[in-house]
Specification:
Blueprint lengths: L1 E9 L6 E3 L3 E3 L5 E4 L6 H8 L7 E6 L2 E2 L5 H11 E4 L11 H11 L6 H10 L15 H13 L5 E5 L7 H18 L2 E6 L10 E5 L8 E3 L2
The chain binds adenosine-5'-triphosphate.
Length: 222
């Protein structure tokens, strides 16, 4: 369960304060955070990912308020508990797909477990690309490798930032299906941030940010 309360963030002194809606997201209740450009979606995702530190508020995952963590403790928590999927793939290009996943595990202080790496690639239908470099794959295949890397540490929270915006309808649906089915299998909470309205029907909770600059408010669909 991910539970956030009264999260706020401000870019520098004098900048607008973003006040984010409280979230309560359980396993098998994936949440979609929608909002137009500039409404603060990426800011929100970066807070949830522990990349930005909130000005105030709490974020609790598996009993830990990680808004209170910093330094090495936050790095370890993020590496082991949170899997991040971004809009555009980025990889260590000199390394193979398999090696990219191994690095993701080692960076989080986990052993590079060949069995887990293989089964993660297999579940995403990309085990045959394990020894290729990511640049030798299509954009859609790279997207699946990025999802595999986000899942390889078996995180408790999967966050995805605009994972489908650059994809056509068929591939967008495939990515949405993969994220939801893998999250359910791992017993992980899934939160997707997007302006892609096509995803709305796939998600249990939809939270909308309004395009306001000094205060972000939301409507929560039951
Ligand atoms: N580093 C920064 N310094 C100051 N202001 C910033 C910074 N990053 C973002 N902002 C501002 O905060 C607001 C929200 O940005 P954010 O990227 O979170 O929006 P978004 O909803 O994700 O937009 P998009 O869909 O276009 O990516 C924008 O007005 C943006 O200009």
């Amino acid at each position: 369960m991910l539970v956030t309360s009264r999260l706020t963030y401000r870019y520098g002194e004098g900048g607008p304060t973003f006040r984010f809606p409280d979230l309560r997201v359980g396993v098998s209740e994936p949440a979609l955070l929608l909002g137009p450009s500039g409404s603060g979606k990426s800011t929100w995702l970066h807070l949830l990912a522990g990349i930005l530190t909130p000005e105030s508020g709490s974020m609790e995952l598996a009993g830990t308020d990680y808004a209170q963590l910093g330094g090495a403790a936050l790095d370890r928590f993020r590496g082991q508990q949170i899997g991040l999927v971004l809009q555009r793939p980025y990889f260590l290009e000199a390394l193979t797909v398999r090696e990219n996943l191994a690095i993701a595990r080692r960076t989080a202080g986990l052993p590079a477990d060949a069995t887990i790496i293989h089964s993660t690639l297999e579940q995403l239908g990309i085990d045959r690309y394990a020894d290729r470099r990511p640049t030798q794959l299509s954009v859609g295949e790279q997207q699946r490798v990025m999802i595999a890397r986000a899942l390889v540490n078996q995180p408790k929270l999967i966050l995805a930032d605009e994972p489908t915006s650059a994809l056509d309808k068929v591939n967008a649906q495939r990515v949405s299906d993969l994220l939801r089915s893998r999250a359910a299998e791992l017993g992980a909470v899934l939160v997707v941030v997007t302006h892609d309205e096509r995803l709305r029907a796939d998600f249990t909770q939809v939270v909308e940010l309004r395009p306001v600059t000094d205060q972000a408010t939301a409507r929560v669909d039951p």
